[in-house]
Predict the structure.
Amino acid sequence: MPFHRLLAVTAAALLLGAVSACGQKASGSTGGRLDVVTAFYPLKFLTERVGGDDVRVTQLTKPGAEPHEVELTVRQVAEISDAGLVVYLKGFQPAVDKAVGQQARRVFDAGTAVELLPAGHHEHEPGEEEHADEGGTDPHVWLDPTRYATIADALGKQLATADPEHATAYTERARALHAELDALHGEYVAKLKTCERREFVTSHTAFHYLADRYSLKEIGITGISPEAEPSPQRLAEVAEQARATGATTIFFETLVSDKVAKTVAREVGVGTAVLDPVEGVSQPGADYFSVMRANLTALATALGCSS
């Protein structure tokens, strides 16, 4: 090859390399944005709010899907391997835990940012399945706005470490989100301050953090797993507790069947309503804040709150 042709080829290669470097600032980045893989909706919401335009966010749990037993595709495992950061909650989704442990390079476990509560559970009857998640910690930490705000702060620091160029922006956005969550907490405190009842009945025990924060008592028909089948004796026990506490509503959630809640409601002679654990949001225009405020309205109505 003539010398002038060799120089031209070399120059073109160098230019191509420079363009590529501009488009991908580091491994785990695309178009100048940090690639972040999130496990399920509450973590996706946090990452989008704290990361802003400086991150490209993907979610492993499809919108509208129940996240507890999610299974990953080969492509999703590859995304975990390629990501600049994986945001997950260890112990909540076994398939995600396994893939993260084997493939991820940099991770943020939301459970390390706050103290997790023990899993709520009920007494199991002979023949009723004991789920492995019960007896451990309760993963539904995002249902306490104050703990969720602490996780937002920690995520901001983790994003700043992974992408120092935008550290100030991550910190500022985390601070702004923290303030919004503080305001939401204030709404809950004000509205639930004076209520006729403090006990509420749910189809599965997902609201331990919310109950703990606002001095309420959750009566769960089943434990943490929403797919668990309660025994006839457990159904009778919950119906008795509902009558004793004067419950007017049996709550069910959006991503699983309402059959169990309606069974207890018929037995007690009361109505049903949605109390959403915000594990996933599929309605257009809805987000964490709108669902949590809908939950607050539903709780205040069911508990006979005067504020």
